[in-house]
Amino acid sequence: MDVLEITNLNKSYGKKILLKNINLQCKVGEIIGAFGRNGTGKSTLLKLIFGTVKADSIHIKINSKTIFPNDIISSKKIAYLPQDTFLPKEQKVREIIPLFFPNGEDQDKIFYSPQVSSFEKTKVGKLSLGQLRYLELLIIGNLSHTFLMLDEPFSMIEPIYKDVIKDLLLKLKKSKGIILTDHYYNDVFEITNKNFIIRDAKKIEIVDKADLIKYEYLKSNQ
Ligand SMILES: Nc1ncnc2c1ncn2[C@@H]1O[C@H](COP(=O)(O)OP(=O)(O)OP(=O)(O)O)[C@@H](O)[C@H]1O
């Protein structure tokens, strides 16, 4: 079973300590949810693990083997879904899929995924937010990368596509380990095995909504 281990992660911006001595482990078969108020460093955490933001210190191991931050992208072990879309707006969905998957069999996995036939002829710029996020997740999730860092997969998504996305993530976790962050906490709790909150730069393990209240992410009447 593949394991991603992050230890001794520290990140400051100027005098502000954003993340202090964070340790985190993610195994294939797990979906881990990261919570925290705006600006606590959740997106930064995912980018540090993906290697696109430089840490003050970080040690990343996959199956006990160290991977240096500069080698993460080329190792093709960790994939990252950014908050903002990364697909060109003017191209149709069916033109985009072969750009990521030259092999016909791999393309078919996407073309025959639920819902895709209903929007494959549509230009990316004309997709609903739910269709777009789902398409991005299908692309990222069908790459060979074992670990997925997902920044806000549910944000602003209509309920029907949230369910399609949840089904996809539950299917993907059979062969991947996933760390995701989103403020839509009910959707996150529905699919995660483990959760944590970032508070005062530290990572605190949590289990449920009561903990989100305890750590002042939610008010008790929400
Ligand atoms: N390049 C940078 N220089 C200085 N400060 C930065 C930089 N990038 C991010 N920050 C700050 O770091 C903090 C954490 O940002 P980050 O986007 O990781 O938060 P977040 O927890 O994902 O927030 P949200 O829930 O709003 O998405 C913010 O205060 C942000 O302003």
TrEMBL record:
Residues 4-222 form the ABC transporter domain. The keyword Nucleotide-binding applies. The keyword Nucleotide-binding applies. GO terms for molecular function: ATP binding; ATP hydrolysis activity. It comes from the Bacteria. Keywords: ATP-binding, Nucleotide-binding. PANTHER family: ABC TRANSPORTER, ATP-BINDING PROTEIN (PTHR43158:SF1), SKFA PEPTIDE EXPORT ATP-BINDING PROTEIN SKFE (PTHR43158). This is ABC transporter ATP-binding protein. It comes from Aquimarina muelleri. The lineage of its organism: Bacteria, Pseudomonadati, Bacteroidota, Flavobacteriia, Flavobacteriales.
